[in-house]
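**User:** Everyone, produce a chain:

**Assistant:**
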Amino acid sequence: MSEPMTRAERLDPIEPGLWHWSIHDERIDFRSEAYAVAGPEGAILIDPLPLDPMAAEALGPVQAICLTGGFHQRSAWRLQRELEVPVWAPSGARVGGRPDAWFGDGASLPGGLTALDRPGPTSPHFVLDWTSPGRRRVLFIADLLMRAARETFFFVPDDHQQDPARSRESVRRLLETSPDVLCPAHGDPEPENGRRALEEALAADQGRGGG
């Protein structure tokens, strides 16, 4: 999918070392989120979206770009050229550019990120696991769950998934990590109690008759 035309005008801190920006994505007529974390040599961009250059200055130098799957290439290839930084992508992902590195389950990525193979609506589909400077566990959950405003997280509709049961199993497995912060690709992050948000999403899904 091509890069969005819409550009975020501001960068929002979630907590020290963790930033978020959001757009109304005209390609899907829904909101899309991007994130950055602080690394020892600069910021690591996760599924980056277009961002106003003046707002981007708050990130400082960029060390690398990490993708959760081929479905979130977004601004990655333009930024790879402009910033001359490497792009890391999941092994087997179909991408329109040239990643500098491929990764698999359990891989250590720039900035202290760890790749978790958690199949979602499509595969390959990775969750990125990170511990903040404040020792809080942050999960970048890509498309496993979505959110409207600050309501309960929900699953992508079954008719937009390769294997809905597999997505639900991936979310159940995330409970084992007891995350503090959840960062979805579409919808407001959960900055306080990520585990409870996962539990509520699964409970609501069961109430609707989901798997």
Observations:
- Residues 134 and 208 are 37 Å apart (CA to CA).
- The chain is about 20% helix and 30% strand.
